[in-house]
Specification:
Layout lengths: L1 H6 L17 E16 L4 E13 L15 E3 L10 E3 L20 E3 L3 E13 L11 E10 L7 E5 L15 E13 L8 E12 L2 H20 L10 H21 L9 H31 L6 H14 L4 H26 L1
Parallel strand pairs: 1-8
Antiparallel strand pairs: 1-2, 2-6, 3-5, 4-7, 5-6, 7-10, 9-10
Helix pairs in contact: 2-3, 2-4, 3-4
GO molecular function, one term: acetylcholine-gated monoatomic cation-selective channel activity
InterPro entries: Neur_chan_lig-bd, Neur_chan_lig-bd_sf, Neur_channel, Neuro-gated_channel_TM_sf, Neuro_actylchol_rec, Neurotrans-gated_channel_TM, Nicotinic_acetylcholine_rcpt
Organism: Lottia gigantea (Giant owl limpet)
């Protein structure tokens, strides 16, 4: 009998207006973050499992519970009543008629005073601009903007029920840490219309857990760069100076490719990319210097003198940087040569 009395002249296709009502239907919106499924950085899409909580009042669905054996609430199918067409503006997945996925699959609850509560789970696929400047020590903020797609603020006014989303049942993610989810109500005006268009935006702030990246990428790369610098101390006679530098260069290139595959294309160079660029430059410089030193070494063995330009650069420039006393070495060499000449003359005179 109650269902017959409520829905005999009820039409679920229009916004419920009643006499004396001076404004549209106010829809309270809240979400509970259940889990962070995935953050696809190259495509800049975030997947989140949430529980959507909507509440509003339908003045056409009011009854006296005492007249119906104390029944003060009903759970009805979705298509029996009017439900606001709240949608995620930056949704990346086609839902039912463009609405939130799962909106039409569950049942709202109606109370005798006309208040309606509709809670349902869904998976949001939202666009999220990824800022990779500080990767892997970065913090991302993804706005989740909800609002009515068909109605303006004079008909449906969407407002947040709390200052933040519910995170009490959040399942921890292995790569990202949930920092906060603030809820902010906006009213926007567009050039096409005079009416405002309200929305509720949840600013999802997540921080990357960087320990695994430090252990698996940063520390090995730092050690590889140190190996490139240690190559300067390797004697020429070892014959592995060039081979070592080439191996280090290839290892850095592989690590750089692994990191670049995880980042979105961006005009801003991440500091991690700058680190790899500097490391590759250092390794390349070390490789060039190793080839140069080997060339000089073998030229000396063949009796070719060191070019004057190189002698000038080494003795006048590099010697001061490494605190090498050129004059003292020259004096010792001159004394040694003089002693050798005297000894040679004494030997010749004794023979004569």
């Amino acid at each position: 009998q109650l269902l017959s009395d409520l829905f005999t002249n009820y039409y679920q296709g229009i916004v419920p207006y009643c006499s004396g009502q001076d404004k549209g239907v106010e829809v309270g919106l809240g979400i509970a973050i259940r889990s962070l499924i995935d953050v696809d950085e190259p495509t800049q899409i975030i997947d989140i499992n949430v529980w959507v909580r909507m509440s509003w009042t339908d003045c056409h669905l009011v009854w006296n519970a005492s007249d119906y054996d104390g029944i003060n609430e009903l759970v009805v199918p979705y298509d029996k009543i009017w439900v606001p067409d709240v949608t995620l503006y930056d949704n990346n997945q086609d839902g039912d008629q463009g609405l939130l996925p799962g909106l039409t699959d569950f049942r709202p609850k109606i109370k005798s005073d006309g208040s309606i509560h509709y809670n349902f789970p869904t998976v949001l696929h939202s666009l999220c601009t990824i800022d990779s400047t500080y990767f892997p020590f970065d913090t991302q903020t993804c706005p989740l903007k909800f609002g009515s797609w068909s109605y303006d603020g004079f008909h449906v006014d969407v407002k947040n029920v709390s200052a933040s989303a519910d995170t009490s049942s959040f399942k921890k993610n292995t790569e990202w840490e949930l920092v906060s989810v603030e809820a902010v109500h906006h009213e926007l005006f567009y050039s096409c219309c005079e009416a405002p268009f309200p929305d509720v935006t949840f600013y999802l702030t997540i921080s990357r857990r960087y320990l695994s990246f430090v252990v698996n990428i940063i520390v090995p790369c730092f050690m590889i760069v140190c190996l490139a610098l240690i190559g300067f101390l390797l004697p020429v006679e070892a014959g592995e100076k060039v081979g070592l530098e080439i191996t280090v260069l290839l290892a850095l290139a592989v690590y750089a490719q692994v990191v670049s595959d995880q980042l979105p294309p961006s005009s801003n160079l991440p500091y991690m990319g700058l680190f790899f660029a500097c490391a590759l430059l250092i390794t390349m410089f070390s490789l060039i210097m190793a080839v140069f030193v080997i060339n000089l070494h073998h030229r000396g063995e063949l009796g070719y003198p060191v070019p004057k330009v190189i002698r000038c650069i080494v003795f006048n420039g590099l010697a001061k940087i490494v605190f090498f006393d050129v004059e003292e070495e020259n004096e010792e060499e001159a004394v040694s040569t003089s002693q050798h000449s005297v000894s040679k003359q004494e030997t010749l005179s004794s023979i004569g």
